[in-house]
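Exercise 3.2. Students should predict the tertiary structure of the chain below and write it as structure tokens, then compare their answer with the key that follows.

Predict this chain's 3D structure.
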Amino acid sequence: MALQIGDSAPDFSLPAGPGPDRVSLSDYRDEKPVVLLFYPFAYSSTCTDELCAIGDDWSVWEELDAQVLGLSVDSPFVVAKFREELGLDFPLLSDFNKEAATAYDAIYDDFYGSHGVAKRAAFVVDRAGVIRYTWVTEDAGVVPDFAEIRGVLANL
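Answer key:
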């Protein structure tokens, strides 16, 4: 069942690269709102454009005191290299085992022959761990409305 505004956000603990260090949604509890951006694959054109749009406008997200986390089913090695090459100021997390994408109902059964790929999706989670915005699309070529997300953050 799809998550709704007002639901508690499922916690997760995922690597941002190779090694034992992990990032959890609960790390930000009581600290700052979190924007979760699920994306299908690193290095695809739409995913690159989406993440670069956030990175290019990073000062706006900082002013909103928001933590942005990008999540894909790519390996920890791939997300670390992708983040480095894009020069992003926010973590990209490897949901290689598809736990977060499944918990957020943001996963394709079949994506052009690949199984268990993250859908393009966006969620805003407030400081209390409650979902305040949801957007999940079947069309991987469409990106979230960042102005709408910033508006939600501004009203938290």
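Discussion points: The mean pLDDT is 96. The first strand starts at residue 13 and ends at 14.
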